[in-house]
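agent: user wants the full assembly modeled, not chains individually. Plan: 1) parse entity lines 2) check alphabet per entity 3) run joint structure prediction 4) return tokens. Steps 1-2 passed, two entities, 428 residues total. Proceeding.
--- entities ---
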Amino acid sequence: MLVERQPSLFYSMVAISIVLALFIAIIPIAPGYRVLRPELVCLLVIYWVISAPQHLGVTFAFIVGFCQDLLEQVSWGGHALALALVAYICLNSYQRIKSYSLWHQTLWVSVLIGLHQVAVNWVQSLAGYHAPMPALLASIVISSLLWPVVLIGLRRFRQRFRLI
Amino acid sequence: MRLFVWGGCALLLAVLYNYTSLLEPLKNRAVDLAAPFYWVARLPSKAEEWADNRLMSRTRLIQENNAFRTENLILNQKLQKNAALEAENFRLRQLLNASEAIEDKVLIAELIGVSPDPLVHKVLLNRGRAHGVYEGQAVLDAFGLMGQVVDVGERYCLVLLITDSTHALPVQVNRNGVRLVAEGVGDLYRLKLRHVANTLDIAVGDLLVSSGLGQRFPSGYPVAEVVAVEVDQGQPFANVLARPMAQMNRSRHVLLVFERHKDS
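--- prediction returned ---
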């Protein structure tokens, strides 16, 4: 495991990927297509938590979520709560998730993303914003279809540069 | 255990953020923290714009220049008429013993980011407390009222647009002075008018201007144009929709209006 051999390298890899995902979360998109933006930050948190569950967990997810709240200028605590919940579930089930086939995993990730969206929208509704159902579903479908890409892409990257 | 601690923290943050004003100074700080990220995220579109500027052909530049010159001439002509009208208005107001209408001071700002959340209609401007921006300040573009400043950082500020679903403002029908409230519905091209009586004199094409009654916005700026009036006698109120005059998703340069009495 890279995290035991070279912790600084591992953590900088995590940090860089999360910062990139945060940029993708705020890159300007035409108003009509904004609902199609994938929840890349959530996918990466799932990926890193199940790949190093002894080192990254709920605290990590909370910090990442809070950064996203700060950046997106939405009600604070929303993404932090949602990602902490997702990380908790991942911590409790990472052994099972890792043994699933890719499509089975994607299905499971879509459930986690759904939970994430519901939590975020609940906090947003405290501020008076109510997301329509189709927007939530679109985001869930697009984000979970991106899971195989994230998983295989990061795995290839780590194999290529021997960062396993 | 960790989940309870951090989940509890997140819930506490959410409640404090939405129901109290304890986090207000931190929110203003967060605007300054987030702004550089938006600046970087905008670089790709900036580069495109730069290339566009560099590669513009000479003929197109000349064409554009001519168009601007003509436009300038027309505007100047209108301005001449305006000067006479303003003087006349001033004299009439003096006759009526009304307080004189003051010309508003403005500051030009550039839009550097828009809220990534499709539900939230907020934009980030590159002006802040250092430039004299204050909370509640009105923001306009060349066509009409856009929104108001909600969080002010040192060099950046966050603006809530009038189309946001948590925003409403007092307006007046320009034709007959009827006062109404226009609220956002979360659609960039729609405002909804609240509590319009079925018998009220309002028609498609009416211009709505800000009435200044909420003590937030200066009066007399165009806000929206009525596009649909549905009267159903069975309902207590008519269903009236309007289209904002300001170009909510196109304007890059906007104006921050200073009100005189808030300057001092």
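agent: reporting back. The two ends of chain A are 6 Å apart (CA to CA). Chain A has one domain: 2-160.
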